[in-house]
Amino acid sequence: MEVTKDKHPVEELTKDPVVIDQVKRLIHIAPLEKILNVARAHSLWPFGFGLACCAIEGLMAANMPRFDLSRFGYEVMRGSPRQADVMLVCGTVTHKAAPFVVRLYEQMSEPKWVIAMGSCAISGGPFVDSYHVVPGVDKLIPVDAYIPGCPPRPEAVIDGWLMVKEKILNPKVVSKVRG
Amino acid sequence: MKTQTYSLNLGPQHPSTHGVFRIILELDGETVVKATPVPGYLHRGIEKLAEARTYTQVIPYTDRMDYLAGMLMNWGYVQAVEKLMGIEVPERAEYIRVIVGELSRIASHMIATGAYGGDIGALTAFTYTFRDREYCIDLLEMVSGSRMTFSYFRVGGVADDLPGEFYPAARKFLADLPGMCDEYDGLITGNEIFQARTKHVGVITPEMGINYSLSGPTLRGSGVNYDLRKVRPYSVYDRLNFEVPLGKNGDCFDRFRIRIEEMRQCGKIIQQALDQIPEGSIQAKVPKVIKPPVGDAYAEVESSKGVYGCYLVSDGSPKPYRVHFRRPSFINLGYLAKLCEGWKIADVIAILGSIDIVLGEVDC
Amino acid sequence: MLSDWGAVFIFFAVALAFGAGGIVTSFLIHPRRPTAAKLTTYECGVDTIGPTWVQFKTSYFLYALLFVIFDVETIYLYPWAVKFQSLGLFAFIEMIIFLFILIVGLWYAWKEGALEWK
Amino acid sequence: MADYSIPADLMEALKNKFPGLEIQENRDVIVPAADLIPFMSEIKDNQDYAMDFLTNLTGADYKDRFEMVYNLVSMTHGYTLMVKVRIEDKEKPEIPSLCPIWGGANWQEREIYDLMGIVFTGYTGHPTRIFLDDNFQGHPLRKDFQWQGGREA
């Protein structure tokens, strides 16, 4: 997502700094993208893309009564990439599955995000030495949030979702070192 | 008017394939003319990786195969190593293995029940079964510290003892279990839409089931009484009495119904095991570095999907020379191609759901 | 006289605006980045196999046709059902005849096997 | 563990019907590749053994030979039997397929061909890969298989 520039339109009208500061303080023209981002961040539609064990924790357990992802508004699980916002890659990406992982990512409509869940999706995990495993899904598609664990607990998955929300609301948060 | 058949991908990315499993369906309208299953999208080469690991390091790979019943996977592998080395597992460890194994079976059957309800369209069933599975997973987490990939078994015993608060929590869970199973019966089994969609669909005859080496609820749904815990009792199963539920006409409905029955029987088994568990050590005398004698061994365990076997070849070094896992989900799928012919697309999803496959185990 | 129809018209306009509004605003503001890969057909993540424009069975068409007929029939039933008491016996008989004609049509379709899925 | 193997007298009957048989001390049976099919159909059809359930079918790659391992169970009598077959020819390993006898052998044989490279003759549809792509070079479970893992040094 390109970062919108913070130029205020009043700067074309006058060069007087005092006026510009007052107008900037009073009239806050949020670009349309920022408003949409607030709406998007609070109702992301996950793309149910269960590969292996993490799918049970990330797609199923996190959505079910005890951990209840719908408290955050992310429970609408879509089966097709056309209607999904976030691609939750949970499980091991193998060489045979790599082409259709990339294809599904490309078939998703903008704006789209990717969460790599579990050590298999992050770096190949326990199967990194295998002849048939892609060591990390970020070798195929750009990833926005990584959730370590094998499998990560549903609470960690929810924390991953909140990281993506944080990233959507103010993109500069990416550069801030967390924790 | 002659109609052309067309090919459709019930593809790797599909809500009802329980993971990345692909069936190329040749369809004439709605009816399946030919079905070609294509597994392999999750093939991680566990058997090749196991050859480069020591005997104890292979244990975490086993419960990433059938990640719904991790304990039973550990059991199959560990039993093969013990048979190869001729180790006698102490009494208490055997009882602990039965308790956590049956708990893992309950958790696996709960997902199978909920997912099958979801496949047929009863999405709320999934919520109920998962809510109860969380209680079952709490018990297993109390014992092993992890929710799904336990790696709790060791060659010659188990990692550590049952914690003190496990017994009251387990008894409370066992008291609620029959109520949970009645709830699933009332919610799913009794639903006539569910029955209309699953009765007399995907019928497996006993002869075909045996000929195609099917096992577990898939085979017992056709009335074949083949449950390793009864046919060749291993561990302490010969001291526990329980019945093996059998189906009558081998259709999707029977395969589904006996899974709920099996959950009730698991409750009875755990009850008896909790009553009879003796005191004592939980780990046999095993050398620090496990070097089995040269030779091979094959041992089998009844996992929630069927007979789970492990064939081990040792050349005396601390690393296994060859490890082969007999995976029930993989072999149960061998019959899917013939089973789906002639049924409609919706029935194919019902049949695939009733065989209850887990892709980590199919592709190994 | 006009005001009565005016109310109906306003109701219709609001309904139209509500529906079309959502579509138009989303059309205006959603980002458009059509890439070649994005426009390929989605079939579970893999390429389609074989020709997809095939002659398929007529039962799809017959089912849709029967549904449309009986859907239209229920539209006619609604106004009648609303004014059921005040219309009296004559309208009741009239509607029964109308229903009977359609039931005969359904019976014929059923006998001819339009509903079975061969 | 109770002993579920075939009793001695039935084993003797097999021995003299198939002279090439070699019975190990733990009652595993080594069958020469030539009369694998007759042996297997004998123990399946002959009601004394009634080995109608093929539990496991796998292969192992040793230095001087390949070895196929079949585990069989008799549903009626409850016997279990492990049958081994040695394939001396390492360059072109071939063995008759058991699919005509047990349908369950189909996928397991395709898996062994895919990962080990042992060709199963006498059945249409073999040998085809089941897990890996058709253009995958080599058979991973062979000891001489070279591959490049994902671990950055």
Labels describing this entry:
heterotetramer; A: 179 residues; alpha/beta; 4-stranded parallel sheet; 7 helices; 4 strands; disordered N terminus; B: 364 residues; alpha+beta; Cytochrome-c3 Hydrogenase, chain B; 3-stranded antiparallel sheet; 15 helices; globular
What does this structure look like?
The complex is a heterotetramer of chains A (179), B (364), C (118) and D (153). Chain A has 179 residues and is an alpha/beta fold. Chain A has helices spanning 10-13, 17-26, 32-41, 53-60, 98-107, 118-123, 154-169; strands at residues 46-47, 86-90, 113-117, 145-147. A four-stranded parallel sheet of chain A has the order 1-2-3-4. Chain A is elongated, with a radius of gyration of 19 Å. Residues 1-5 of chain A have low confidence and may be disordered. The N and C termini of chain C lie far apart (55 Å). Chain C is an all-alpha fold. Helices cover 71% and strands 0% of the residues of chain C. Chain C is flat, with a radius of gyration of 24 Å. With 153 residues, chain D is an alpha/beta fold. In chain D, the strands form two sheets. In chain D, strands 1-2-5-4-3 form a five-stranded mixed sheet, with helices on one face. Chain D has a two-stranded parallel ribbon with strand order 6-7. In chain D, a hairpin with a 4-residue loop joins strand 3 (53-61) and strand 4 (66-73). The chains are: A alpha/beta (179), B alpha+beta (364), C mainly alpha (118), D alpha/beta (153).
List the helices and strands and how they pair.
The complex is a heterotetramer of chains A (179), B (364), C (118) and D (153).
Chain B: E1 6-10, E2 22-28, E3 31-38, H1 46-50, H2 59-62, H3 70-85, H4 91-120, H5 123-144, E4 153-154, E5 157-158, H6 166-189, H7 192-198, H8 206-211, H9 217-220, H10 228-231, H11 252-276, E6 295-302, E7 307-314, E8 322-326, H12 328-332, H13 336-340, H14 345-355, H15 359-363
Antiparallel strand pairs in B: 1-2, 2-3, 4-5, 6-7, 7-8
Helix pairs in contact in B: 3-4, 4-5, 4-11, 4-14, 5-6, 6-11, 11-14
Chain C: H1 2-29, H2 36-39, H3 59-82, H4 84-111
Helix pairs in contact in C: 3-4
Chain D: H1 8-17, E1 22-23, E2 29-31, H2 36-45, E3 53-61, E4 66-73, E5 80-87, E6 94-96, H3 105-116, E7 119-121
Parallel strand pairs in D: 2-5, 6-7
Antiparallel strand pairs in D: 1-2, 3-4, 4-5
